[in-house]
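Encode chain A's predicted structure.
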Amino acid sequence: MTGLTRAAGGAASVPGGADDRTMVLIGFMAFIVFSLLLCVLAGPEDDTAADFFTGNRSLTPVQNALALTGDYLSAATLLGVSGLVATVGYDGISLAVSSCLAVGVFLVLAGPLRNAGRYTLGDVFALRTPGSSSRIAAATATLAVCLPFLVLQLAGAGNATALLLGLTSLGATQVCTVFVGVLMICYAVLGGMRGTSLVQIVKVAVVFTTMLLLALLVLRHHDFDPGALLTAAERGSGLHDRYLEPGHALGDGAAGRLDFLSLQLSVVLGGACMPHVLMRINSAADGATARRATRYAVAIMTVFLLCVVIAGLGAAGAVGGQKIRAVDSGGQAALFLLARDLGDGISGLAGSVLYTAVACSVFVTVLAVVAGIALSAAAALAHDLHAHVARGGHLSERGEVRSARWAVGAVGGLGVLLAAMSQGRDLQSLTFLALTLAASTVLPACLYGLFWGRYNRTGLLWTVYGGLSCTTALYACSLSFSGTPTSLLSGHDVHLIGLQSTAVLAVPAGFLLGWVGSAVGRRTRPLEEASADLRWRERVLVGAREE
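Encoded structure for chain A:
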């Protein structure tokens, strides 16, 4: 399925005239100025690690819930899910449910993760297995997951920004990519966790309001009759009675259904343990507050995804599946086409405002997400590798914050460079890679480390390095890497596995490696891990606060 879960943009031609693009540009600039001002005003008050990495845990549960929702609202969710609902029906709705389930899975982990963690994934790992090796493994896993996702989001942001402004050349797209990347670096450097959290809150308010308005307009168009909406979507999609049948996204054969099941598995399990989401929960005051914030986030995501599904159904009925696929085969332009169609039915200014709101929603969605990803990757470099591995935990707080800011620049700069160089390629497969890496390495390590008393250092290292190696090898042998027009190497064919998402193979392998490694390492368990077990029971099982 071409264009499945692309980060942003991807349309060959986004609808909208010169007046619309002028309003979009004004909206972009207004948000940029406002968000930068917000980051400066809400940034760290002093050079302490707690302030920079967690905002001194000063956010309320509702604010944390909104910021957590912002982390989950990527452009893949906004554009990809709505496009799939509009073009393939059942599979798109199923993917929306999977996205919501990811937050539900995180609800199980939120309290124990907050009790176990301090700033980064390395703090969670080091609670059970103290020492440099666990922090190096955590930093490796964090960077392996974050870097592909960061490149994907930045490339999509540059592409979407250029298209919405009417710029179509490769050079213009690369300039937009660099511009968005520089903004992202500024957000993370100036705002830290508190500043980026407030940007996420503003983003959720903008995107949620826009999608709610779109959903209400669609329902009003069908006299608030869900049956009429579904009938119109079935007729407009071109699939008719097969619109609400599974198998249209990746094929209705056994291999296609297994592939889609694997994709759903990666969305549910990988989405629940992305490193920037795990870092977000550490800004809660305690485990109970973390669970409360996550419960609120589940409710917000449920309502939001319901609006996305309604908008997708509305696009199928009002615009038509054939027209949507003609603009972009993956359906990524469905929301823009829907906004244009609905705008034609109301006054000229209101129609332009609606189109501008949708365009700005896409822009702010990508911009806020990449800032959080860059901050989590930088925290792994500064806190885990520099402060604890290189300096043995003796780096000053001011030095750690300074290191984190430089790390944001380094990670962001690398991401911008790779994203700009990758323009013109289809990077959708990086979504499969990032989510599967998270599901096969971070999730098993967290679940075993939080809930299994026999997990040890050997098991952790086998989980992380074995999971990363296995997932990367499976990716290189899959259709995501080569063999199709949407593969990363579209002009080559070296695939050995006829799947785009290999989570159905990689995730069990990650869990198995952790179990086998723990069994092997049980014979030579260091004495320091015995005292770590006591801290684990106090922090995770009892909920005692860290010193």
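The first helix runs from residue 18 to 42.
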